[in-house]
Amino acid sequence: MAALSRPQRAHALRAFLFQKLGRVCALCGTTEDLQLDLIVSDGGRHHGLSHHDRQRQYLVEFNRNNLRVLCGTCNRSEGAKFKKLKNRRNFRGRVFLAQKSEPALGQLADAR
Predict the structure, then answer these.
(1) pLDDT confidence of residue 1
(2) Tell me: the pLDDT tens digits for 88-108?
C-alpha cells in the first residue's frame, strides 16, 4: 500500500476531526457549510499556515479540547465579536479562565 500524499493526509485528518467532533454546528445545529473553529482563539495565526499544517494545528487544539465545529455563519459571527474587542490578550485570558472554572475577574476583585 502506497503512503498517502501530503494533501491526502490533511484531508484524512480533517475527516477524522469531523468524525470525532460531529458534523453539526455547535451553536445553531445546522449541518451545512461546516468549519473547524478554535474555542480560544490564537489571534488568527493558524490562518497563515498551509492547509496541511493547519490541519495538524487543529489536531493539537483537538487534544487540548479547544476545537469545535461551527457553520460558516456562526464562525463569522464569533470572529466578528472577537475583532470588536480592543484588548485581545485580555479577552483571551478571560475566556481561558472561564473555561477552566476559575472565578471570573470581577469575583477576584471582589474577594480583595
Answers:
(1) 54
(2) 555 444 444 444 444 444 444
Boundaries of every domain in the chain: 8-85
Q: SS3 for the chain, per residue?
A: CCCCCHHHHHHHHHHHHHHHHCCCCCCCCCCCCEEEEECCCCCCHHHHCCHHHHHHHHHHHHHCCCEEEEEHHHHHHHHHHHHHCCCHHHHHHHHHHHHCCCCCHHHHHHHC
Is it the case that residue 22 has pLDDT exceeding 70?
yes
* Helix orientation angle between 51-63 and 6-21, rounded to the nearest 10 degrees: 30
- Rounded distance between C-alpha atoms, residue 66 and residue 25, angstroms: 15
Give the pLDDT of residue 68.
93
